[in-house]
User: Which sequence fits this backbone?
């Protein structure tokens, strides 16, 4: 199962300081999946996506540093 997750990539929650929004991206994808005004909203959305697609996610702080992995 771990091998399948690696093939699917993982979601990332990152802050876009230019637009002041939290973005949800998937590794290897060009497009942004979603954007939210608050980090809490982005976390709710990425948790739902992660569960539905059986893919992990990584959360970054506003400064871009790694915060948490699931």
Assistant:
């Amino acid at each position: 199962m771990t091998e399948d997750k690696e093939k699917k990539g993982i979601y990332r929650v990152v802050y876009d300081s230019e637009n002041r929004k939290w973005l949800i991206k998937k590794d290897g994808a060009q497009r942004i999946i979603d954007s939210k005004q608050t980090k809490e909203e982005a976390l709710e959305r990425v948790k739902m996506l992660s569960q539905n697609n059986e893919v992990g996610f990584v959360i970054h702080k506003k400064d871009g540093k790694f915060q948490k992995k699931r």
Summary: DSSP finds two helices and five strands in the chain. The chain has a mean pLDDT of 89. The two ends are 15 Å apart (CA to CA).
